[in-house]
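I had to read the description of the data format several times before I understood it. In essence, backbone conformation is discretised, so a fold becomes a row of integers matching the chain in length. I therefore recommend that a typical entry be quoted early in the introduction. For illustration, here is how one protein appears when written out as sequence plus structure tokens.

***
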Amino acid sequence: MYYYSFNIGDYTKDTTHLSELEDLAYRRMMDLYYSRELPLPKEQNEIGRLIRMRTHCECIAIVLQDFFTLEDDGYHQLRIDSEINAYHEKSDKARKSAKARWKKVKQDQKVKQPCERNANAYQTQCEGNAKQEPITNKQEPLNSKDMCASIDAEISDLFEAFWLSGIKKVNKKKAKVIFTKIIKSETNMPAFNSCLIFDVKNRLKLNQMGFAEMHPTTYLNGERWKDDYPENKQHYQQLSTTERTTQANRESYERTQREIAELEAQINDEKTMGSIQQGTWDELQ
């Protein structure tokens, strides 16, 4: 044993009659007993040699008489023996538990096979794992099958959220296939899905003509989220302050972009006109 529990109160109560050397001998004899997990030798001279107190055999004899019992294999102490036995039982239990755990891990590793046939599935997410460099620290290789299953589950959750956005609920199976193909091409799938949901709800609020009856497959195939919003002053008045601000910012941005484009065209026209005038002046010279 590398350590043992030492009860200061019990020890002090039981050893008040010992001299300084006897107390030292007892402590060293206990350390020897625990460290070897064996009873003390029968020969007192051997005990003295092992605890580095060769010239104090009289102190050793007193301690043996007060605290130990001589048996066939050496001097025993009931309390130390019980603690060593408890330590062995605990170690055996932990060893068996670890052995069972590692046995299960090995069995799981045999069952799990590399996801070769699915290595090209969901290429944007799984291709990196399928071509990953071998792991050299003996850890279990990354399982691309688990990765693809996780992505599948995420896409399913995102589609369900889109399906509940208010769009017409028809042809769900086909719509999910198209949705999966589109959203896999996006870097941030949750953010893109949030934009789709916002677009659907906003067009429904605007009472866009025919949108309430539009099939989700039509919406997705036609990328209808890129369409301009129809003008609806009554709906604009019903918008919250935040929604109004967002819409106003969008309109301001679009208006600014148009003005910049017009200004650039005007500048280009002036440059062209200047070049023509300069050429005419050169000819007159």
